[in-house]
Amino acid sequence: MSRTARVSAALLALLALILAACGSNDDKADGSSDAKITIFAAASLQGSFDDLSAAFTKAHPEYTVAPIVYDGSQALAKQIVEGADVDVIAFANESSLDPVTEAGLSDKGSIFATNTMEIAVAPGNPKHITTLADLAKPDVTTVLCAPEVPCGSASQKLLKAANIDVKAVSEETNVTSVVTRIANGEADAGLVYATDVAAAGDKLEGVTLPNADDAINRYPIVVPKNAPSPEAAKAFADFVLSAEGQKILKQYGFGPA
Amino acid sequence: MRLPRPLYLLALIGFALLLLPIVGLVSRVRWETLGDDLFSSESMTALGLSLGTAACATVVCVVVGLPMALLIGRTGRRTASVLRTLVLVPLVLPPMVGGLALLSLLGRSGLIGRPIFEWSGYSLPYTTAAVVVAQSFVALPFFVITLEGALRTSGISHEQIAATLGAGRWRVLSRVTLPLVMPGLVAGTVLSFARALGEFGATALFAGNAQGVTRTMPLAIYTAFNGVGVTQDSAVALSLLLLVSAAVVVCGLRSWREDAVR
């Protein structure tokens, strides 16, 4: 019996040790200077926020930024509500921040950029797509974002405003997969952000829409109430809103806040 | 047989690791809206599509997997180990990569897909058939490996005796080989069905996500999870539905298996 107890205790200790070893993440240094700023940003901010973070650490060497977590705004909101530690939240539209504000974790933040939608087509526009109505043509394979996600709700708004019904062959859960499908030639057209077209370089061509302002996305940035390093987080958010930050965003195709 | 006591403790920890998260999931269910979430036309469509495509994929697995397993199980050791490794490749590929691989072969700009598309205008992605292909791709290894193991352990002595007594190839296969490995065959079928039912990554990439055409349960759950508010509750409800339907199917097949084992 005592042997059993001893072996069990040893095994338990071993298991605890393994779990502890796996779970020990970067220990919080009390000097907030080497605390890393954790940023959750919408997928559409990918290139611009990498640049912003580089420019920010150049201007403020006392801070370090952890590798930025990019994903669909909704999935990120879910993780935040479930208790993920985050210093700065930057989402693709105001409504995706609602779950976070409703949970009492943050206020509404401030708008730092805007983004409009364009039709993305293959380089050279082989299907000669010029209007939203072309997306409904039977010989055009169209991919859209699912209505549940920000790019999808914006797409629906545009199509409704123009009174066009498009049957998408696939409804993607993030805008990046719409871009990828068109860039890889697996689809002819789709609705994506102006910034996605800018980021894709020569893999995609954008067709601007006359009624693009019917679905304009406002990007909020906010420091949540329980941010591990609030001071550094605020410095980063202020940098994004500053003239220098705005200049970087403009290079990536974002409109002014 | 009585096991050394510490093993019971470790086994208990293992069971807790597997089952407690599911208890957690059930605790998240909003019972008052459960009915609406489950019986909404969207979720029923997704469930029907999931069960249908998983069943098709399972049939594909049995039809091509059975000959594969027989081939591997009845060749020489060296050839068998090479073939087994080949079968295991899709098993270790992350499903997303599997989807990408399928696209690069069968997509509109894929190796085979491009000439077919240019010649006939037909392309596989975004169709229900693409879902079945993706599911078969990930489920087939499970079937083959399970059945092949059973074939190895059953040995060939019975088959040789049947052959010396004048039974032909088909007769040996249907009267001796298959009845002997029936438990393994059923286990492989159950496993590949369960794997097909839960398949997400390869389907999402290769077949896309269109309601009623390629949006299976896992994709419906993921789409709902990406939504806001109400749809998140339905994601949990749908997960529960998938869990229950998988359990029902697996239990049904298992009871059939009990009959198969003497």
Automatic annotation (TrEMBL), chain A:
The keyword DNA-binding does not apply. Pfam families: SBP_bac_11. GO terms for molecular function: metal ion binding; molybdate ion binding. SUPFAM superfamilies: Periplasmic binding protein-like II (SSF53850). Residues 1-29 form the signal peptide. Keywords: Metal-binding, Molybdenum, Signal. InterPro entries: ModA (IPR005950), ModA/WtpA (IPR050682). PANTHER family: MOLYBDATE-BINDING PERIPLASMIC PROTEIN, SULFATE-BINDING PROTEIN. This is Molybdate transport system substrate-binding protein.
TrEMBL record, chain B:
One of its GO terms (molecular function) is molybdate ion transmembrane transporter activity. The chain crosses the membrane at residues 7-26, 46-73, 85-106, 126-151, 172-194, 235-256. One of its GO terms (cellular component) is plasma membrane. Part of the binding-protein-dependent transport system for molybdenum; probably responsible for the translocation of the substrate across the membrane. This is Molybdenum transport system permease. It comes from the Bacteria. Keywords: Cell membrane, Membrane, Molybdenum, Transmembrane, Transmembrane helix, Transport.
